[in-house]
Amino acid sequence: MNWVSKDIEVYLGAKEYVDTAVLPLLPVSFGPDMKQAVSMTEFITLLSIQLERQFKGRLLMLPGYTYLKQNSEDKLIEEINNWYSELVQQGFKHIFYVTSDSDWRTREAKFDGNVIWLPSLPLENLDSNSRNTILEDQVKQLLNLFVQKWKEN
Amino acid sequence: MSKQRVTRRQFLNYTLTGVGGFMAAGMLMPMVRFAVDPVLKHDAAGDFVVTGMKIADITNEPTRVDFSFEQKDGWYTSEVTNQAWVFKDENGEILALSPVCKHLGCTVAWNTDDANPDHFFCPCHNGLYTKDGTNVPGTPPSAPLDVYPYKDSDGFLALGKAEPRKEA
Fold first, then answer.
1. Which of residues 87 through 146 in chain A touch B, CB cutoff 8 A?
2. Which of A11, B43, B110, B123, by CA, is between 20 and 30 Å from A61?
């Protein structure tokens, strides 16, 4: 489900079926890595659309968490932990963060929830057909990961 | 002008009738147009999208067919890709099923659950549908999968807007 009124209406009526929250982590930077940050954000945004379509009935796709890449690590981790505790409190059993920013992989041990890191692919040069195919392949990989996590409990 | 003179009174009568007529028509025309508009409206549901699937290539095994079309959301036009599971049923009739689970809208796929071969399976809450799209009782979905109306477009399959079914 997306963060739109129509989907949230459904969510409120079927809360017991929606036990997974996904928070895309979208970096913003104006430094020398600006282009990289843009392509990470672009890729994850497109990917999350596909991911939401696949698992519409069980996951809530939150609007992306946008952060400045220059922010200190402690601050970012604190923010993510805030998200996590709020989501847990709201009854979500599985909390995933999707991102292309590899910094999150090194920080993974310092906060709760599952980080799904995917290398961002240069989709801007592709036509929409091959772009969709690539995104779908990526989502297919995630499909197994999600199903496995769901099976764990 | 002959001997039949137009009197001042007649002339004014004609002029007023003419002008009044125009004004009345100016008011009535939009009203009439508004009233009949729903009848004249182009039916969007009648739009069929041609897919890349040849009708001759459709087998008994459900095959995934992707097709895209332009969707307008306010000012924003985007290309939307839809999926269909297409196959021929035992009577040789083509059936194009929508992959959207009737439970909460996840995407179902054919034959992906090892425990339930030859079924449509929804990975979200283990919803099951038989090959013809009928929901298996005891699983979350409460209705059969939607069906796309189809057309033959020069040998290629064209699909319309998915419609819900009532039976089962």
1. 128, 132, 143, 146
2. B110
